[in-house]
Fold these 2 entries.
Entry 1:
Amino acid sequence: MSTRSPRLSKSRFVAGLQCQKRLWLDVHRRDLAEAPGPATQRIFDSGHEVGELAHKEFSGGVLIDPPPYEIERALRETDEAIAAGAEVLFEAAFMYDNIFIRVDVLRRNDNGTWDLIEVKSTTKASDTHVADVAVQKYVLQGLGYIVRTAAVMHLNRECRYPDLSNLFVIEPVDDRVSEMWQELQPRVGEFNRLLLQDAAPEIPIGKHCTDPYSCPFIEHCWADVKHPSIFTIPRISKKRIDSLIGQGVTGIVDVPDTFKLSENQRRYVDLFKDGQRQIMWPAISDAFSELDYPLFFLDFETQADPIPRHYGLRPHDQFPFQYSLHILYQDGTLEHTEYLHPDTTDPRRPLMESLIRDLGESGSIVAYNATFEQRVIRDLARIFPEHRRRLNRFLPRFWDLLDIFRNCYFDPSFGGSNSIKKVLPVLVPELSYAALEVQSGDVAQLAWKEMISTADRSKRLELERSLKEYCKLDTLAMVELYRVLAGLLAE
Ligand code: SF4
């Protein structure tokens, strides 16, 4: 345990609202936390980028720039800047009631009051953001500052590139802060006492482990959870999860037969208890009869930037930068084609032109979760009206392979998931994602960003190869799953 006197902060306070054990572990056993994954890393990176851009909206702001660990210097420089009459401060540092905060933007009003503004890279102010603002207001008011407005400055979904003049919205959240004001002081006291304890509080796992955020201590706290776990039961409520955990049940196979579940949930639980596959061959046969050769197995990789950089995009809009396409002919011939955008220009037109050439006029387009691929095509049709009719003709040709594993083919070996990465090793064990450097869509996004920006030619070639391998495997996996199912159907 650390010998330094532990302090609260904005993020620790919010962690404590999710789970007090998380707060304690965050302070005393950081070593037990999982390293941030690529998705979390992208959120951090975009947060920095958005924060810097937000500062440009306030002219003449003074940046308090000591790093997070130089607390005393940050406090001193904040005092000096305020005493010198700064109108706007960025990252101003304050400490009160053992809570240390850095305020994203603090703006002085003519009457001596202050506006407190928290910058977020999302497109709305969530309850967690409001809690974050509330604790900052608590500190400032405790120090004698009068906060006129407490607000969240977030991205505006109405903004479209190239006009970024309305990129941000400053949304006052005073009413929402007031709603939680009463419980703030007792919570701060409770959390400060908790930090002085020698051991983590005994808090059972539950839905709060993933809501509102996935907790970094899941691996530690869930070590004894049986797999597949009760958390994979479709649409199970927090109340039922808590009730099962209260009975010491974490694995699906241990759910009592008398435990109240919906019909769907009970069917799911029974699948694991029986340990047998359930396959509805007539339904699969019907679905396969809808397919027209040649079969086009299609997968897109997309990027979503908080700050849009290409025509017509809004904050966080997805756009495609890569696709892989396997074409299976009725005689069994298989062809592969692909597109990977090579640079920082807008990928959509060349990708779309390549796609129109490759998809031809007829034949089913097979995707795994086809609504995603269809959405990408609809977005392309909106941006390129001259190709709208051609692109829209692709939509009714889609056929969703995921529907087979969602509705007709259940196997306990899938571990309660119907993701292609879980289904593939069971039905096609010779194909695997394990050896690939890029193994998920999140990593593919990071890899593509690096590929188009690096000046290192060999690095660029390596990333290009990894991205092509990954996307190609996604469509080859569909081909092989289709072949396995078709073979079994034929038997
Ligand atoms: S995994 Fe769950 S119980 Fe453990 S610290 Fe996180 S939220 Fe709390």
Entry 2:
Amino acid sequence: MNVPILEIFSSIQGEGLFIGSRQLFLRFARCNLSCGYCDTSIDDKGASCKAEVIPGSKEFTYLPWPLEVKHIMEFICENYNLSKHHSISITGGEPLVHCLVLKEMLPEIKNIKQKVFLETNGTLYEELKQIIDYVDFVSMDIKLPGVSKIKPCWYEHEKFLEVVLNSKAYLYVKIVVSSSVNLDELKTAFKLIKKKRTDITVVLQPVILKEKTLFPTSKQLLYWQELALDYVNDVRIIPQAHKLLDLL
Ligand code: SF4
């Protein structure tokens, strides 16, 4: 079974509650959504995996597909000092699209005593059920349809939240916001979280796009944070950091 990983690199987590933590990233191809602001190259036509062995060097080794789980495990154990990493970030694209691969790979990651950090768009709840026992941290998106330009995923998000909250994994929720946020949608997202638990940390992440006009104003961000605090206890406004630092 090919492991459709596009990139392997060691860097800081650039978003969310664990911003700045050192992680080893395994970035999977493909996604089940197509957000208007997506800035990630996720197609798998290249048929190889690009690995940055010296962190920050922007020098790459190319590992041709097909790649087996054992190849990936050998490669990361031989080339990275895993003891210096907070966790291994399983990211994409949407990694849960590759549930069968994850079912094989995550136990191997646990075997080498590493923590699994799942970055997900929070929609593929049936797939999540199959691997959640191997996951230590979940960074789950809730997509606002007006910002993401996709159909509403409220039902999927709710089911996804249920699966995570029935597990031992640590969860925070990330919501990408732009100046064009629809307040009703934002409130729907907050209500959905509150319905499950009020102690889930929510991160509001301002979108970064070429059209700078879509970047929220300070007034909007602070207002949305106050609004969110009517529903949940802990709300942070955190922009993406890796782009500022020119890191992968
Ligand atoms: S869920 Fe993430 S990877 Fe998928 S299209 Fe949206 S922004 Fe891109």
